[in-house]
Amino acid sequence: MTTGITNLGEKRLVLVSGRAHQQLAQDVAAELGIEVVPTTAYDFANGEIYVRFAESVRGAEAFVLQSHTAPINQWIMEQLLMVDALKRASVNSITAVLPFYGYARQDKKHRGREPISARLVADMFKTAGANRLMSVDLHAAQTQGFFDGPVDHLWAMPILVDHVRGRVDLDNVTVVSPDAGRIRVAEQWAAKLGGCPLAFVHKTRDITRPNQAKANRVVGDVEGRECVLVDDLIDTGGTIAEAVKVLLAEGASSVIVVATHGVLSDPAPSRLQECGAREVVVTDTLPIPPEKQFPNLVVLSIAPLIARAIREVFDDGSVTSLFDGNS
Asked: What is the pTM of this model?
């Protein structure tokens, strides 16, 4: 006699998606060789959201993908409802996949009486029933500590570096951080590009005025060099556009802008098109509709990276191994 029953079933992976970025979900599913679980989702007249999965997910390892694009509050709420629905449908585990983590920039208090919104988002996913979070290039790595459970922090850097390496002269390239706070990321980029020089743009920011910063001067040698300006996201494009202009004014021969997340809120497309950058390279962690696209924009697919990470989690493998032991 044994003290339990062992069933003959095997683990089952399912991928569900909200409505925010369905193309990315389809691309991830294609990489995994599966289909997205059919889902009914719509809004009631007063704006409330309804979701229901069209097939059984009982006992499955569920991954629910939603990138927090505008209108951001709607899509966060929809994903929370999908997590709750999965929990009540008796799945075995739930991983909330957030290619772009909403409110990630509000990860600390700059002044009194402010929220720490990134922590609240993590708490909401935990309360809804998520066992695990997965995100790409968090604004601050310590945001991983806001969630009480495993957090897979994926890096888009390998995908972006592969593209840039073929677009610049590695003997005449300088990696530039748009501000002193992103130097660590710039150092990693420089190492990936063969140990090239670093520079950063000194800027000032008024914390009482969102989305506004002024680029002042460049610290480092950029004259006559091809510059790769790296950041985690581009929102209104003001900081990046000013940085590009300062670099060109300091004698840079060309500037390629690279960022993981293309938020591209107005007037970013016009700013980036007119600032003088040779290319603006982003991934598709967020949907980029036609009205946000412009001639020098390059969009790289993040689906292969997310699919590999999902597979590692499902197979009890190592997500860290995808990034040379770093994550």
From this structure: 0.93
